[in-house]
Amino acid sequence: MSILAISEIPDLTQPSYAQNAAALEEKTFNDDIAVDIPDDDEISWRKLWAFTGPGFLMSIAYLDPGNIESDLQAGAQAEYRLLWVLLVSHIIGMLLQRMSARLGVVSNRHMAEIAHDYYPLIPRIVLWLMIEVAIVCSDMQEVIGTAIAIYLLSKGKIPLLFGVLITILDTFTFLFIDRYGVRKLEFLFVALISIMVVTFGYEFIVMKPDLVEVVKGTVIPWCSGCGQQEIITGISIFGAVIMPHNFYLHSALVKSRKIDRTNPKRIAEANKYFSIESAIALFVSFFINLFVLSVFARGLYQKTNEDVSLMCRTHNDIPDSNIFQNNTGVDLFQGGIYLGCQFGLVAMIIWGIGLFAAGQSSTMTGTYTGQFVMEGFVKIQWPKWKRVLITRSIAITPTLILCIKANGIKNLTGMNDFLNCVQMVQLPFALIPMITFTSSERIMHNFRNSKGTQYFSIICGVVTIGVNIYFIVQTIEQYLGTQWYIFVIMAPVTILYLFFIAYLTIYCLVECEIIDYWKVTYSNHLLKLTKAIFQDIPGFDFIAH
C-alpha cells in the first residue's frame, strides 16, 4: 500500500450495504422506527418540523460552558468590539455543519464509520484517539460548568467537590429519557435551550447594554485599540465555537430521519431542510452568546476587581463575594458573583440556572458523540451507561484534584482556557476528514462539494487551523514560558502533529482533484524519501509500504 492508498469504500447503492446501514442505525438510536417524514412535494412547516431536532442538538456545542466563559471574557476585555468575531464564527460554523449533515444524509453513515473504511489502520487509530481526547476535554468543561452552577444555586452550601461528583449521576437522568426515543430527547434539548434564552436574555434586559454599540460591534469587522490580549480572546471565541467532535455528532444525528436514499430528489430535500433547521438553531445560539458577551461588556469593561469588590461588600447573602482580590480575568464563577453583587441574589440564581442548562445539555450530546465515535472507529458497541461512566470518570479526575487543592475554585474555573486550547489542537483531525469525505465522488456521488465549495471550505479550514495554531503557541508561551528547553521538548510532538496534518491534507487534495493521485504517489521524490526514513520504524509500516 502506498502512502496515498485508500481503502475500498462500499458502494452505497448495493443492497447489502443498505441493510448493514439500517441495522447500524437501529443500534445507534433507541427508537424502533426512525422519525417519519411527510410524503409530499410541497415546502411546508409540517415537513420542516419533522426535520427539526438534529440541528438543535448540534447547536448545544455552541452553548457549552467553554463558550459562555469565552463570551464573558471577551465582553470584559474588549467591550462590544469582538461581537463580529462571534458572528463570523457562527457563519463559518453553519457552513461547515451543513457539510457534516449532508455527509450523513447522502451516505447514511456518519464520519467515524466512513473514516474507519477510508483510512489505513494506524491513521484511523490516531484519528480516533484525537477525537476521544476532544470529547473528554469537552466533558471536563461541562463538569466544571455544572459544578459551578450547583455551587451558585445552593448559595455555596454544596461545595464544588460534591458538585463535581453529582455530575456523574445526573447524566444517567438523560439516559433514562433517551429510552423513550430520540424525538423526546430532542424536545428536552429544545427546552434546555429555551431556558438559556430566558435566563441569559433576562440578564441582558436587566443590564441594558448600549444597543447601538452592540449593533456596531456585530457588523463592523474591526477591533479598534485592541492589543495582543484582545486578539487572543477573539481567537479563543473562534476556537470555542468550532469544536471538532461536533462534526462527527451532526453527521450521525441526521440518520434519525427516514429518508428515501434511492430518490435523489428526497436526498436534496433532506439536505435543504436540515440546512434551514441548522441555520435557525445557530441563529438562536448566536443570540444567546451575544446576550452573555453584551452583559459583561456593559458591566465589567474597564472595571477592576477592586471596583467589583467594593460593590460586593454590601451583599452578605452572596457566597464568596470576597473573591475579587486581584485583577485576574473574569470567569464563570466570578461572573455569577458579580451579577449577584450588581443586581441581587435573584440575578445570580438565574445565571446559575442558565449555566446549569448549558452544562447539562452539553453532557448528553457529548455522550452521543462518544458513542458514535467508538462504534464507528473501533466497531465496539457499548451500552451508553458504560460509555458515560468511563468518559465522565476520566473527565472528573483532574477536576477533583483541582477542587481538593487550595484555592480550587480559581484553578477550576481557569482551566477552561487550557481545555479550549487542547480542543483547538484536535480540530484538524475532524475538519480535514470532513472536507475530504464531502468532496469524494465515491462517497457523495452527485452531491459532492462543488469546486467553489471545495475551495471555500479549504480556505476556511486553513484560516481556522492557522488562528488556532497561533492561539496554541500563545497559550504555551503564557503557561510554560519561552525557555529553550520548552521548544526542544515540544519540537518532536509538533513535527509529528504537522506531519499527520500534512498526511490528511494530501488525501483531501486528492479527493478535491487539486493534485493528481498518480503523480503524487509515484513521482514525488519527497514521498520516496519519507518512505525510506520510516520503513524500519515499527508501527509506521503504513507509510513505508
For the largest beta-sheet, the strand count, sense and barrel status come to: none
Give the helices and strands as they follow along the chain: HHHHHHHHHHHHHHHHHHHHHHHHH
Helical amount = over 70%
Structural class: mainly alpha
The unreliable regions are 1-32
End-to-end gap: 5 Å
CATH fold call: Amino acid/polyamine transporter I
CATH second-level architecture: Up-down Bundle
Query: In total, how many beta strands?
Result: 0
Q: CATH homologous superfamily, by name?
A: Amino acid/polyamine transporter I
Number of helices: 25
How many domains is the backbone divided into?
A: 1
Tell me the strand percentage band: under 5%
Question: What is the residue-mean pLDDT, rounded to a whole number?
Answer: 81
Apparent shape: globular
Subcellular location: Membrane
Pfam families: Nramp (PF01566)
Keywords: Membrane, Transmembrane, Transmembrane helix
InterPro entries: NRAMP_fam (IPR001046)
Explain briefly what this protein structure is:
This protein is mainly alpha-helical and 545 residues long. Helix content is 75%, strand content 0%.
